[in-house]
Amino acid sequence: MIKTKDATTESLILEAANKVFQRKGMDGARMQVIADEAGINKAMLHYYFRSKQQLFEAVFKKTFASFAPQIIKILNEDSPIEDKIRSFTFNHISFIIQHPYLPNFIFQELNRNTEFILIIKEEIGLPNLDKFKKQVQKEVEEGVLKPIKGEQLFINILALNIFPFLTGPLIKAVVDIDDINYNKLLEERKTEVANFIINSIKA
Amino acid sequence: MIKTKDATTESLILEAANKVFQRKGMDGARMQVIADEAGINKAMLHYYFRSKQQLFEAVFKKTFASFAPQIIKILNEDSPIEDKIRSFTFNHISFIIQHPYLPNFIFQELNRNTEFILIIKEEIGLPNLDKFKKQVQKEVEEGVLKPIKGEQLFINILALNIFPFLTGPLIKAVVDIDDINYNKLLEERKTEVANFIINSIKA
DNA sequence: ATATTTGTTAACCAAAGGGTTAAACTAAAT
DNA sequence: ATTTAGTTTAACCCTTTGGTTAACAAATAT
Question: Model pTM?
Answer without folding.
Answer: 0.88
